Structure formats: C-alpha cells, structure tokens
Amino acid sequence: MIFMKTKQINWFALIGGILILLLLPISIYFSWWQLTIGKNLLTVNVSPVNTNITLFGNQFSSPLFWAMNITGSLTFLASGIIMLIYALVPAKPYSKDLLSFAYRKPLYIVIFYLACLLVMTFAAQAFLGQGIPITGSANLTLPSSMTMGANISILVTSAFQWPFFLAIVAAALSIIARIYHTKITKAPKQTSKEPILQAIPTAEKKIETPILNRTQQN
C-alpha cells in the first residue's frame, strides 16, 4: 500500500516545487545577473525578487523595481506551494488544474526575466551609444558629453549567476512533471469477466432449488 502511494507521487513535480521555493530566499541574496561598470563605479544586480543599482557605493531602487520584485516573490511562492500539493496527490480530480496553474510559472518568469534584460541593454545602448554585453566583458568609451571632451574608457563586465541556471532547472522539471502526469494518471483497464463468472453459479443454484422442491412434493 505504501509502495503504491509512493509510486503515484509525481517526483518531478516534487523536486521542481522544492527548487522553486528554494529560489525565493536564494534570489533575495544572490542575483541572477550582474553588471559591473568600472571598479565599484556602477553595479546592477537583477533577479525577479530583488533588483538594485549601486552607484559610487550608494544603493538605489525604484517603485517599478519594487512592484516587479513583489510580483516575482508571490509568483514563486504560489507556484512552489501548489506544485508540492499536486505532487503528493497527482491522481485527484482537481490535480490537473493545480498542475496547469503551477508548472508554467517558472518558465514564464525566466522568459520575462530575459526580456527585461534585453530591454535594459537596449536602453543602455541608446543612452550611451554603445552596446553592453549581456554576458562577457568589453571596454566602454563614455560619450564626450559626459566627460567634458575627455576620452575615458572603462571596463564593463556582465554575467549570469548560478541562481539563474537553477531557475532553468526548476522550469525544466516543471515541464517534465506535466508530461509525466499523463503516465501516472492512466487508469488500469478493468475486465468484466470475473463478475460474470461469479454470477453464473448463483443463478444455477436459484434454478435448482425449485426443481428439488417439486421432486420432493411428487
């Protein structure tokens, strides 16, 4: 009985749900992507639950970043909890609805996150007149309007951090959990031969009883 219950657990959804919930506190302290301009001149840390900008050692934020981070935190929390509930009871009538709500969220967060990075880099390119690499290093020459005609070049470094790749793993496990759902919810085929065979002797006894009664009366 315990083996059958364990077999019915969607392990992909269980591990994926745990990773999603772990990503919430991890992403608060570790960014998914980091941009560094110069030596402690400008640092940008971006994650779906914590985005901040540090300029000359002073940290800045904005209401837009705050709203996006709150939305990301609630999405992670809801998706992870619902995924765990589904993983333990994947065969219930309401389980498919739970999975349909939860499994898409990590993928949507990763896609939205990448889209925001592209918008940020394009905006920086339009402002500075030069491209900023999403990953890697490059020398950035500041516009002369910002340097009073002086030619100043600074090093720009950007890279994805390990929580981003953990989020990709969580999104992949969520998608696999949806595919695996069809396997563990297949109902076993039931044959109707056994009930019919059991009913035949009962019917024969009912027929034999009145015949014996008539024989005894005669």
Instruction: Give the strand content.
Output: 5-15%
How many domain modules?
A: 1
What is the strand arrangement across the widest sheet?
4-3-2-1-6-5
CATH architecture: Up-down Bundle
How much helix, percentage-wise, in residues?
55-70%
**How far from one another are the termini?**
57 Å
- Radius of gyration using CA atoms only: 31 Å
What is the number of strand segments?
6
CATH class wording? Mainly Alpha
Q: So how many helices?
A: 8
Q: How would you characterize the largest beta sheet?
A: 6 strands, antiparallel
CATH topology: Butyryl-CoA Dehydrogenase, subunit A, domain 3
Structural class: alpha+beta
Question: What is the H/E string?
Answer: HHEEEEHHHEHEHH
Mean pLDDT: 80
Low-confidence stretches: 189-200
Could you walk me through the main structural features you see in this protein, from its secondary elements to its overall organization?
The chain is an alpha+beta fold. The chain has a single domain (2-191), classed as Butyryl-CoA Dehydrogenase, subunit A, domain 3, CATH 1.20.140. It is built from eight helices and six strands, in the order H-H-E-E-E-E-H-H-H-E-H-E-H-H. The protein has a six-stranded antiparallel beta sheet. The longest helix is centred in the middle third of the chain and has 26 residues, at 63-88. It is elongated and about 70 Å long. The two termini are 57 Å apart. Residues 189-200 have low confidence and may be disordered.
